[in-house]
Amino acid sequence: MTQVRLEDVTKAFPIEGHILDGIKELGRTFTKEEIPERVRVTSQIMGLGFDKLLGRLPRTLSVGERQRVAVARCIIREPRVFLFDEPLSSLDAKLRVQTRVEIKKLLRRFRITSVYATHDQTEALALADRLAVMNEGRIEQVGTHAEIYNWPVNVFVAGFVGTPAMNFFQGRVEEGGLRFADFSLPFLPRLKRRLQPGQEVILGVRPEHIAIGAEGHLRARVEQIQPLVTERAQIVYARLPPVPPKVGGLGGSTCVVRAGGEVPVRVGDFVSLRFDEEWLHLFDAQTGNRLR
Known about the structure:
By secondary structure, this protein is an alpha+beta fold. It has helices spanning about 15-25, 35-45, 65-75, 95-110, 120-125, 145-150, 155-160; strands at about 1-5, 80-85, 115, 130-135, 140-145, 165-175, 175-180, 185, 200-205, 210-215, 220-230, 235-240, 255-260, 270-275, 280-285.
């Protein structure tokens, strides 16, 4: 595995020397003919205009160009696997986007297996074909973004993936359905056989699967609205009514809704919230594992 490190491209000598550093780490001797040929082939692989960077110094390069050089240092070694470890963490938002595009182009060109470590979900989605969600050094779930987003295996994955995060409601199984602090739900046919009376459960609902309407599962007071103008949507933060401690649940907490920009809602309004029952997620409260 070859690690791509942007910080290596800082020494005050021409870029061609930085690329040659990569083959020095192989621990074998190359002839005078082999070395320039490897540089030439690597430059071709790196794409249009890369050969013009070879005589320049690192301080004259943009961050995106430095990232290309860091990858070239690895390419010249003919690696089987790339490791990118938070390569964009020190960049501002604009540079992150630009450099992300460059890295994606390079990965498509090379077709080399790459492991990309990042805490930024947007970055992961933009670059990865498959995602691995980790928690305290342990892989919780591996899959495509759609698989992880739509069918999270446990509460941690469900709450970690997605912006805004999934809403959670604590409740229990009772005769005839599921009882939560502020509302009840009938048994879902596919789950009925797997639930036991008195079992503690956690219901998960993503913001886009909650509708603001005349009839709903619960009522809440709008506390804040965040317009998403370019997406013609709005994020609505609604406060649930407080519930006596003996009842349990999450009464008094905030429920986050992603609504269309045309939905008429104002701060201070009391609104009804209705869940899309096709997209409800149910987890065991003891283990945190998915029940459906």
